[in-house]
């Protein structure tokens, strides 16, 4: 896979993930998250189930993604980007200041699934 294809693949995966959340397409979101998933947020770590619960409580507004960097390690893609996002969690509006996101995707028999996410925007 060329560097250009690799970057597009990683960027598209993350954009599809956010699009599914924004559209509240929970079956698509769940299919994108590995059962062995783990996330890191400013308030602690979450597993697959806890992350889905968090995501279902988010109201996503407009977002801007930029400065993607994608690397490949065996059958995994590591995707980082900057995001500025309008999001409300449990009725509280979070900062729209750009912050970094890191996601790790594993190639499975079901396609790419996210196995890890680091969200550096304070929750």
Task: Give a quick rundown of the structure.
The chain has helices spanning about 5-20, 25-30, 50-55, and strands spanning about 35-40, 45, 60-75, 75-90, 90-95, 100-110, 110-120. The chain is α+β, with helices and mostly antiparallel strands and about 120 residues long.
Number of strands: 7
What would the average pLDDT be, to the nearest integer?
89
Q: How many strands, what sense, and barrel or not for the largest sheet? A: 7 strands, mixed
Radius of gyration, whole Å: 14 Å
How much helix is in the residues?
A: 25-40%
Instruction: List the domain count as a whole number.
Output: 1
User: Globular, elongated, flat, extended or rod-shaped: what is the shape?
Assistant: globular
Low-confidence runs: none
CATH topology: Nuclear Transport Factor 2, Chain: A
Order of helices and strands: HHEEHEEEEE
CATH architecture title = Roll
What is the straight-line distance between the termini?
Answer: 36 Å
Label the structural class: alpha+beta
Quickly count the helices. Answer: 3
């Amino acid at each position: 896979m060329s560097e250009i294809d690799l970057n597009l693949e990683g960027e598209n995966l993350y954009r599809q993930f956010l699009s599914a959340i924004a559209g509240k397409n929970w079956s698509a979101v769940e299919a994108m998250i590995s059962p062995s998933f783990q996330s890191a947020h400013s308030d602690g770590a979450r597993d697959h189930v806890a992350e889905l619960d968090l995501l279902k409580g988010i109201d996503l507004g407009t977002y801007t993604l930029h400065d993607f960097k994608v690397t490949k390690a065996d059958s995994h893609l590591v995707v980082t980007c900057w995001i500025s996002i309008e999001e409300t969690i449990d009725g509280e509006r979070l900062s729209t200041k750009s912050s970094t996101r890191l996601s790790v995707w594993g190639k499975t028999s079901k396609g790419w699934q996210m196995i890890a996410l680091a969200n550096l925007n304070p929750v």
